[in-house]
């Protein structure tokens, strides 16, 4: 059971979508159930949203939470953030989300706030720190088609699709119990092209595409993966381990914040 007074709070970004509302197209602010449920069940924490946050509010809002999960999304990071034009105008973008999440990455890392990136979130982290993306991995010679099979049942879309090779000694390698290779799902069209400074690749697909990154000088738990560990995370040992480790980091930050608050309350007032 979640205790709002003591359990960690995890900021999860809102997707900005236009959806049908009684025959009219209306704007919605959305969070996928599978991401929120993985945080609540897998990390034993409470998901929270600040759906109308702006970039200048990010530092203050981060001070209220114990960690951040940057979720996947149907939309892509706008390529102007890495100096390119849009290659396929038919694909969805979400510049309102970009404005907030790219700022969240930089401020969360600077403040030592636990951070987990998934799919789009993985790509946001790379772009926020100065990296770039392939806009259509499936068009690259020698690369796999990493997109989900169209029209397939949801369980088939999220089924394991390919192996990833893990970097020995990495956080992810440890969470996998020292396994050199794990099998993951694959539901993305874009991927890392130029790795950002401060990141190191810790997992690769058979075609060489980077599948996970860690931070060379992280002050707290900081991991991002291209696949979707949130999908029924309780059924997969590595996914469970990722969210459990993230949850442990959240509770450590929660305890530090509580200790700081007690110390502040006990401090004598200045004359």
What report would you give on this structure?
The chain has a single domain, classed as Rossmann fold (3-Layer(aba) Sandwich), CATH 3.40.50. By secondary structure, it is an alpha/beta fold. The protein has seven helices and 13 strands.
Shape field: globular
Mean pLDDT: 95
CATH domain class: Alpha Beta
Give the biggest sheet. 9 strands, mixed
How is the largest sheet built, in terms of strand order? 4-1-5-6-13-12-11-8-9
Order of helices and strands: EEEHEHEHEHEHEHEEEEEH
The rounded distance between the terminal residues' Cα atoms is 44 Å
CATH superfamily: Class I glutamine amidotransferase (GATase) domain
CATH architecture: 3-Layer(aba) Sandwich
Total number of beta strands? 13
* DSSP helix fraction: 25-40%
Number of helices: 7
The domain count comes to 1
Class by SSE composition: alpha/beta
Strand content: 15-25%
The parts where pLDDT drops under 50 for at least 5 residues are none
Instruction: Give me the CATH fold name.
Output: Rossmann fold
Rg, rounded, reads 19 Å
């Amino acid at each position: 059971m979640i205790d709002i007074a003591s359990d960690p709070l995890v900021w999860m970004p809102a997707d900005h979508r236009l959806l049908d509302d009684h025959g009219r197209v209306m704007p919605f602010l959305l969070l996928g159930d599978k991401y929120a449920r993985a945080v609540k069940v897998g990390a034993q924490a409470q998901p929270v949203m600040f759906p109308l946050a702006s970039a200048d509010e990010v530092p203050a809002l981060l001070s209220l939470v114990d960690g951040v999960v940057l979720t996947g999304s149907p939309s892509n990071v706008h390529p102007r953030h890495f100096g390119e034009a849009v290659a396929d105008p038919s694909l969805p973008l979400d510049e309102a989300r970009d404005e907030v999440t790219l700022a969240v990455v930089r401020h969360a890392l600077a403040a030592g706030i636990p951070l987990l990136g998934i799919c789009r979130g993985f790509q946001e982290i790379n772009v926020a720190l100065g990296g770039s993306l392939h806009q259509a991995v499936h068009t690259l010679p020698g690369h796999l088609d990493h997109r989900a099979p169209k029209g397939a049942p949801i369980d088939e879309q999220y089924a394991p699709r390919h192996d990833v090779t893990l970097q020995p000694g990495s956080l992810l390698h440890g969470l996998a119990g020292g396994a050199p290779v794990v099998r993951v799902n694959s539901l993305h069209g874009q991927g890392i092209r130029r790795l950002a400074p401060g990141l190191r690749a810790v997992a690769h697909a058979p075609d060489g595409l980077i599948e996970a990154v860690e931070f060379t000088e992280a002050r707290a738990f900081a991991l991002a993966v291209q696949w979707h560990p949130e999908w029924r995370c309780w059924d997969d040992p590595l996914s469970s381990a990722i969210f459990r480790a993230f949850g442990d980091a959240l509770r450590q930050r929660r305890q530090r914040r509580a200790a700081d608050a007690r110390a502040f309350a006990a401090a004598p007032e200045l004359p």
